[in-house]
Structures are given as structure tokens and as C-alpha cells.
Amino acid sequence: MSDIQALVEELTALPRTRPAGRDEAEAMLARLRSAAARWADVLYEAGRASEHLPPRAEAAVMAAFHRAEQAYVELEIAVRDCGEHRDPVL
Question: Structure pTM?
Fold first, then answer.
């Protein structure tokens, strides 16, 4: 399960303290977006194997995947919004 190990490593690398400024906050959002994408990938793969699960369990895995995918999309919007609202360099 290298995808899960990569996700754990990515989450472990996140800073343990609050961002000190806008640049650090934006970098943290980008890292969270990446972790959210990886988590969605893990859940997608679990969903592909869910034909061996009872129907409610299969539905739960797919619902978790859709929530993870939505989290990724929301974080993508947040990162893009940060980039669009940067002060112009003079």
C-alpha cells in the first residue's frame, strides 16, 4: 500500500504550527490539496475493490471517495484564489 504510505508521509511533513503569514498559509493549502488528492486516489482504489463488500459498505466507500474528491476541489479553489489575490509586485 504505497499510496497510503505516501499519504502518511505527506501528512507527517505538514507543519505543526500555524502559518506565520500569507505565503506559509498558501503553501500549507497546497500541501493539503496534494494530500486530499492522494486520499481521494486511495479511496477510489478501495471503491474499485468494493464489489467484494456488502452493498451498504460499497456505498459508504464510494460516498467517502466523493467527499474526498470534493475536499480536493475546494482546496484547489482556495489555492487558486490565493494566487489571484496576491498583491502585485511593483
Answer: 0.81
